[in-house]
Amino acid sequence: RGMFVPVDDYIDYSTPLWSDVKQANDMMLWNGKHYVIVNQVTGDKCAVIYNRKTVEEAGLEDPAALYKKGEWTWDAFQKMLTKFVDPDEGFYGIDGWWFESGLSATCGVPYVGLKDGKLVNNLKDPAIERVQNWMYDLYTTNCVAIGVGDFGWTAQPTYIKEGKTLFYPCGLWAMYCSADQWQNNFGEDAFFVPMPKDPNTSEYYIPCGLDGYVMVKGGKNPQGVAKFAECKRLTLLNERAAELGEEQMFKDYGWTQEMVDMKKSMDELALANPYFDFYTGVTPDITNILDSNENGIRAASKGTPWSESVSAVYAQIDAFLKDVNDHPVSDTVKTE
Asked: For FRET with 162, which of 15, 46, 273, 283 sits at 20 to 30 Å CA-CA?
């Protein structure tokens, strides 16, 4: 829409200051230029929140222990669900509104990707088909809580605390609050792990968040923006600043050292294998289509086979992406 300008004249991503996030910045290339200044890649966008007491009482192995052993995979995730779920007795599987995109990320292929500076429609990619068929299988075996038995169609995070639901995939923002707040939903024994690894991928992909900036067209001080971003990078690389961040988690959030260490591990995973899906960041039409329960990425977990969704929306998504790819920089697009 012509609202932002490239930053390449002001930031050198080949310098040591930017080396650890260069890959992530290069993944954002648009029309051959860097428009996004990615300062940080985080692994806290979607984690599997659970209650350790519930897991123990169900005779299941702690996901954190499985993760430590390199065994926290789709298979382990599904086996735990299958053993725990019993809607007739009031025991449910996966709750929340973020698990579809969270599980999708683990296959490493975004629904809408960026390749060679162009948007790519990956809806027919075998990896996408595989993860969607898996989510359909989770639905057919009652592992998805929403709409099953007496659960209803509203998310019930307090069911984690009450031992009624096994997993609540959600951003760690749900635990970036005082201990009494997150414990009210998830209980004193709450913990979290990354989304489970796709056993068919060589790398461990998880949903990635990012911290960054863009330069507004017509801005009077682009050099100042670049220096500000460099200051942020220096802060992120500063050991004392990192220690202060940890102290906040202990003091303000009531986290344990184990929780802080798990978040660190998730951030390391995200930085090592950055994953970004652009389906929510191109046009409202694409977002509305692919984020829907009808024929979007959530449909399989609600009972619609992925093949039906692809047939219904593939051509539309292709047309929208072609239009944007054909007009990568436009001052004529109307903004409301």
From this structure: 46
